[in-house]
Amino acid sequence: MSETDNTSSQSQASGDVTIQMRGVHKWYGQFHVLKDINLEVTRGERIVICGPSGSGKSTMIRCINRLEEHQKGQIIVDGTELTDDVKHIDQVRKEVGMVFQHFNLFPHLTVLENCCLAPIWVRKMPRKEAEAAAMLYLEKVKIPEQAKKYPGQLSGGQQQRVAIARSLCMNPNVMLFDEPTSALDPEMIKEVLDTMIELAESGMTMLCVTHEMGFAKTVADRVIFMDGGEIIEENEPHEFFNNPQSDRTQLFLSQILQH
Amino acid sequence: MADEKRTVSEPAKPALWRRPAVRSVFFQILLVAGIVYFGNTIFQNTLNNLEQRGISTGFGFLDQEAGFGILMTLLPFDETHTYGRTFLVGLLNTLLVAGLGIFFATLIGFVMGVARLSRNWIISRLATIYIEIFRNIPLLLQILFWYFAVLRPLPGPRQSLILNDTFYLSNRGLYMPSPVYEQGFWLVMVALGIATVASILIARWAHKRQEATGQQFHTVITVIGLVIGLPLLAFLVMGMPLSWDFPVLQRFNMAGGMVIIPELAALLVALSIYTGAFIAEAVRSGILAVSHGQTEAAHALGLRPGSTLRLVVIPQALRVIIPQLTSQYLNLTKNSSLATAIGYPDLVAVFAGTTLNQTGQAVEVIAMTMAVYLAISLSISMFMNWYNKRIQLVER
């Protein structure tokens, strides 16, 4: 009991800040992947993270739900600090949803079962209730008619929308997107982006690693540019694209906006 | 002229012997004829040989008196029983060791396979050492090791290691009390039956309630309580209608009680440990075949590592594991015929050994024995294929 009291009082103390990263460092062996990351995300904020490959952007958001461990610094999500404590990790993962580049749907379960698995086993929801909720979210991502199919029977775009619905079924406060459109055919990118834009408009706190600059311009409150494991620049999108401050940002933007 | 004609009509048919279909039929006929000739030659040859030696063919010998004893029998057996009975006794002994072996090998295999992938350094190293040692030593050697190096050197019956005057461990085996059911014990069995049925109903009800309300029910504890408690109650009510037949040390040997003979123990341990090592590798490869993204997705959804393994990884890994598991089960069953090396009375030792020696009915005995192994193996194979298909269907 004292655990939960503690948590709620902490979250009140930190006010509207959902995610705090303070001086976060991470190494893969000798390789320094994240260098002194400082980031604060307020509730409802939409953040796009971009940068060249290997710049540590995926690693950074994967630290937020502890798919990766950081070795130095502090990460606090909704008032819960991520440490070795399994209870804290469980707490954070319940509140943070994630969408992966390769969807990672469970191929042995139907779309509906994919969506219900975590609510039933983690939130201990009755199956009927979980299924009803799942159908709502599947309608939100516009594929309720596929509920009884297996992931292998769907197109890439449909699979990614199921993955988004699956995360939403846990009722998360924060959604992380790790290059959600990079593995899709061009004509399917739009349907996924549309889903994400709708989600953003509903007020969800979102962190997206993506190279879809159009998406960044329409929905992001803030764009973060990373290179070599550091946050080089962060700004609101209009300024970021029209008036980049650092040379590296300029170079990166000129490379990806050329076409 | 000919060219023009070819362009408008069907292509001209080549000569008979240059058509692939005709050729293939011709060679197939040739092959079948060859096999029939070969089989017939062997059959005639055998008949001639048997006739020359004056051995009568047929299965009449199965009704003759065997005249030898068997070390361990699941059916009542003594020297006056028939050769047919030796077949049954051997078959049951083979099924016993194969069934138990499959059970223990699967248990060891799954635990060790998961353990080898453990993040705990010591656990994974121990599992690796186990697998690499027992997978790479010939099975026959392992059977001989457990029998001659571990169990035979135990003290003789008179110097048995005794626990509480109930368990006697010696080189004759592990002797323990056997239950004697007295009048009124039937009520205990009835109580056990009722408890089992009630448990199934409760489990169903709990599952339904979980689906409907999300409330979890302590099914396991309740079921354990029922299955133990109810028969215990009946047992006490009926005035404890059960006594034990204790093994007693006699002049040279033990009498009474039950015994696990060292031959069975050695064979079972060797088979389980040897096959378990292979199953562990199959389990490991199956788990590794499931992409890491699946684990990450499950973790990101908040599932604990245990639930992730049970709900996400193992169901997918099974598709890879099952075919390998099938062939390991078949191997274990067939390898159980090595029993003959340490004198465990399995089908090969009793029937294809002693019975064959005494009757000389080589063709019949060997044919029957081979048919039995074939039948067991095909049954296992059919069951596993059915199971495999069932879990494949869930996939798509």
Task: Offer a concise description of the structure.
Chain A contains 10 helices and 10 strands.
Describe the structure.
The complex is a heterodimer of chains A (259) and B (396). In chain A, 42% of the residues lie in helices and 24% in strands. Chain A is of the alpha/beta class and 259 residues long. In chain A, the strands form 2 sheets. In chain A, strands 6-7-8-3-9-10 form a 6-stranded mixed beta sheet, sandwiched between helices. In chain A, strands 2-1-4-5 form a 4-stranded antiparallel beta sheet, with helices on both faces. In chain A, a hairpin with a 2-residue loop joins strand 9 and strand 10 (230-235). The longest helix of chain A has 16 residues, at 186-201. Chain A is globular, with a radius of gyration of 18 Å. By secondary structure, chain B is an alpha+beta fold. Chain B has a domain at 83-149 and 269-391: MetI-like (MetI-like fold, Orthogonal Bundle). Helices cover 67% and strands 7% of the residues of chain B. Chain B is built from 12 helices and 8 strands. Chain B has helices spanning 2-8, 20-53, 83-116, 121-135, 139-151, 185-213, 219-237, 262-289, 292-300, 305-335, 347-359, 362-395, and strands at 161-163, 167-170, 173-176, 178-181, 242-245, 248-249, 254-255, 258-260. Chain B has a 4-stranded antiparallel beta sheet. In chain B, a hairpin with a 2-residue loop joins strand 2 and strand 3. The longest helix of chain B is centred in the N-terminal third of the chain and has 34 residues, at 20-53. Chain B is globular, with a radius of gyration of 30 Å. The model of chain B has no long low-confidence stretch (mean pLDDT 86). Chain A binds chain B through residues 65, 67, 90, 93-94, 96-98, 100, 102, 104-108, 117-118, 120-122, 124-129, 150, 152-153, 163, 166-167, 170, and chain B through 210-216, 291, 293-294, 296-304, 307, 311-312, 315-316, 394-396.
